[in-house]
Amino acid sequence: MTKDTRLLTMEQFEDMIELSQFAFQYEIPAAKLAESRERFEHEETDRWGIFLDGKLAAQLAVLDLHTYINGKRFAMGGVAGVSTWPEYRRQGLVAELLQHSLEQMKEKGQTLSFLHPFSIGFYRKFGWEVYTDLKTYRIDTSLLPARTPYSGTIKRVELNYGLLNPLYNAYAKRVNGALDRAEAWWNYRIASRKKGQTVVFFDTTGVAQGYVIYEVKNRELFVHEFIDLTEEARSALWSFLAQHDSMIDRLEIKVAADDGLAYLLANPRIKQEIEPYFMARIVDAESFLREYPFEAGSDEAETGFVLDIQDEHAPWNEGLLQVRIAADGSANVQRLSGETNGEQIRTGIGALAAMLTGYKRPTELLRYGQIQGQSHLVEKLESRIPARTTFLPDFF
Predict the structure, then answer these.
(1) pLDDT by residue (tens digit) across 92-104?
(2) Which of 52, 138, 213, 240 could form a cystine bridge with 57, CB 3.0-4.6 A?
(3) Which of 176, 219, 212, 173 lies closest to 194 in space, CA to CA?
(4) Contact at 8 Å (CB) between 115 and 278?
């Protein structure tokens, strides 16, 4: 049996779509096929397939994306569409594709990778780790936030990239792990996945400060996206949503795990559900650490330590890295070729991603045994990692 790994092109479009529809149990209507072809041609994505005797057996896509960590933009490979025909499963084909994709992402300078897992345990074996949760509120109409007066104006608008993206982008820089959305992302992904109505809140000076994308059907209101840059915008947009009380029985919204809406309600006994959402992986630890914006120090002293990194699927990450964090938060990173007597923190690549995305604090991981090192050194590292909410209001 012959086996080869290839970059998929338009010549394999039908084969790719056939496998995707089977694996993910959906069907693209004939009227939507042209749109899928257009997205295939124009989206910045590398699609890889393994062929056995000339037949496509397994595939995945790596989307060329960018994300924000501590307010800084990072190149990120978004892994999606991982699928295999049943007769070829459990033969290590997905493992080969993941390994290949890591090598390709490193070559392209994508220091991070995100994916939505079908199985968290499966992808943990390859170095991805949960980096963000989603909290879902299901609020009965009687428990919605109180309607309060506001001074600005709410206007219904079209899904306008020029108006909405600056608001979204300002919000995205405040959290870790949100995408820097390109215009094509709005046109292809947001427009198709977040249908319904869009309203924008303008303050009294006419400056837009927030928006909501939502949909009403079967007496339920689904908030697809809620972006607020000020408390005034948050309060006004919730007041607007509460105006739908006569036509709905319930409102549903997905928010960051640390969202504090319930605390602000007169009756906070609403239904809340938190579940793991996306996973992250550091593709190139040395490059990522050099770019990473650490917390500025309280004095001019340098914070130094050695990271002993384990990463069996990306051997270029394995080994000892000397990290010196300057007072301004910039890092000098050097690879050590031999053993060192310096203070070390031993970590797998997944735990390192959980730390540096802000999903888990180093002292918590030390307590769980997920990392090893002297407590005073781990505390020193933690003092230089900004405390940030992780949130991804997208799917791929």
Answers:
(1) 999 999 999 999 9
(2) 52
(3) 212
(4) yes
